[in-house]
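SEVERITY: medium
COMPONENT: batch folding queue
REPORTER: lab tech (J.R.)

DESCRIPTION
The queue accepted two submissions in a row. Attaching both inputs and their returned structure tokens so the on-call engineer can compare them side by side.

ATTACHMENT 1
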Amino acid sequence: MTREQLDKLSRLLTDTAQTASTIELRALADHGGQIARWAGVVRGNCVACMRLVDGLSEEVGHE
């Protein structure tokens, strides 16, 4: 992947994680436990993917 593609992917993952966090908080406020759990899973997966993208970005930067 190019640096530009990795940057775009990183921004997309960040936006998705932020949206999932918002959904999670709203669901918790409305006692929507199942929705909150799934939003938390999505957020967690985004964070894990962002870490992978960061590692890939470092590798691309060293080439």
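ATTACHMENT 2
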Amino acid sequence: MMKQRLEYIDLAKGFAMLMVVYIHISINYADNPFADSWVRRMMGSMFMPIFFIMSGFFFSVKQPFRDWVKKKTKRLIVPFLVFYLLTYLMNCVLCGLLHVQTKNEFHYGDLFQVFFRDVFANNVIWFLLALFWSSVILYVIAKNGRGRIWQTLLVVILGGGAKSLGIMN
């Protein structure tokens, strides 16, 4: 039996994906008249929250934590590592061997920057790590929280604390 797709979710995902593509294209071309427009800024402030909200739509704590973490690791951490390493190797070839100039200066030590800074070999895939860790935190809160109001309050306090400490941009 095939699950029926929710068309409005597919439309929201498609809309968010188009915004992501537009934003990433517009920031790479200085002569783009929309690169610093209010439209681009508005779109830039919307597309990631849409992805995170949609992820929350399908969030579930029905599985035991160990199985749940394995599934999240396979869906988020493995793709992050694959694309991160591929981008790092591509940067080694392009910048190190072919001396191609990039927007951000490349160093061979950048491989480990993911553990120390928010600038690393492929900063476009940051959301995979953010979604993984926010899901882990939400799982723990959902399993241990005492009701929706308490859970919501914990999420707001943690988010506000992270923002004020500079952990979240």
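NOTES FROM REPORTER
The chain has a mean pLDDT of 77.
No errors were logged for either attachment.
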